[in-house]
């Protein structure tokens, strides 16, 4: 039996403004008093895990053990088939210390060259953790293809090069509410809600 969220304070263990916005919107209809790790002055742990799940758990546990609260963390990224799953868990790091995603998208374009396989997935692990060290963790994904140059003003990170399967626009061109319905984060969130919030 998964452990359920009892209501009350929930810390979002992320310092990424784009993710915080999306997770707050996903949580809007639940009885949670949401605060971010940044608002509590919690440090960002180093992401030493070798999978999305390991990193999500490491981030959620650092916040829940550090602040004695229930915490939710997201670890996510873009996995490109032609690059054997890269940048994967290193998606944020490909943008360098200045978080330059134009640079990161160009690096992907260069690494892919003229490889005809344009398939990619966005993957998201969400981990809910308690101060006693218990975690409930769920993974979601969305399939698509990559396009260059980047297109669209919405979203964040790699959204402007990702066309979800069945569409002809990128996540960067898509109405944010529509992205939130079908994204990797929404998929992981649905699994989390079914197990821990319903
Ligand atoms: P991390 O989970 O903090 O390691 O960072 C994940 C990185 O993956 C983000 O900085 C983005 O570059 C990328 N990423 C994750 N989710 C999305 C998304 O929904 N759209 C675009 N990029 C994303």
Strand content: 15-25%
Based on the coordinates given, report the CATH architecture: Alpha-Beta Complex
Q: From the alpha-carbon coordinates, what is the Rg to the nearest angstrom?
A: 17 Å
Counted by DSSP, the helix tally is 5
What hetero molecules are bound to the protein chains? Answer: inosinic acid
Instruction: Give the total of domains.
Output: 1
Provide the helix percentage.
25-40%
Describe the 3D structure.
The protein is of the alpha/beta class and 198 residues long. The protein has one domain: Maf protein, CATH 3.90.950.10. The protein is 30% helix and 24% strand. It has five helices and six strands. The chain has helices at 17-27, 52-67, 101-112, 176-182, 184-197, and strands at 8-12, 32-36, 70-80, 119-129, 135-146, 162-164. A six-stranded mixed sheet has the order 2-1-3-4-5-6. Helix 4 packs across helix 5 (184-197). The model has no long low-confidence stretch (mean pLDDT 94). The chain binds inosinic acid. The site of inosinic acid has 16 residues, from strand 3.
Q: What topology emerges from the helices and strands here?
A:
Elements: E1 8-12, H1 17-27, E2 32-36, H2 52-67, E3 70-80, H3 101-112, E4 119-129, E5 135-146, E6 162-164, H4 176-182, H5 184-197
Parallel strand pairs: 1-2, 1-3
Antiparallel strand pairs: 3-4, 4-5, 5-6
């Amino acid at each position: 039996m998964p452990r359920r969220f009892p209501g009350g304070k929930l810390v979002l263990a992320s310092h990424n403004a784009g993710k915080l916005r999306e997770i707050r919107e996903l949580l809007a209809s639940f009885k949670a008093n949401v605060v971010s790790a940044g608002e509590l002055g919690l440090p960002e742990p180093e992401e030493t895990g070798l999978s999305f799940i390991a990193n999500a758990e490491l981030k959620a546990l650092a916040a829940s053990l550090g602040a004695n609260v229930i915490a939710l963390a997201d670890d996510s990224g873009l996995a490109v088939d032609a690059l054997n799953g890269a940048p994967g868990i290193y998606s944020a790091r490909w943008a360098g210390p200045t978080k330059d995603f134009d640079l990161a998208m160009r690096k992907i374009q260069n690494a892919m060259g003229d490889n005809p396989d344009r398939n990619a997935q966005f993957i998201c692990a969400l981990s809910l953790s308690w101060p006693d060290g218990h975690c409930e963790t769920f993974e979601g994904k969305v399939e698509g293809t990559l396009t260059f140059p980047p297109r669209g003003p919405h979203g964040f990170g790699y959204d402007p090069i990702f066309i979800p399967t069945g569409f002809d626009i990128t996540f960067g061109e898509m109405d944010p509410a529509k992205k939130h319905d079908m994204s990797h984060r929404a998929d992981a969130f649905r699994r989390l809600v079914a197990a821990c919030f319903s």
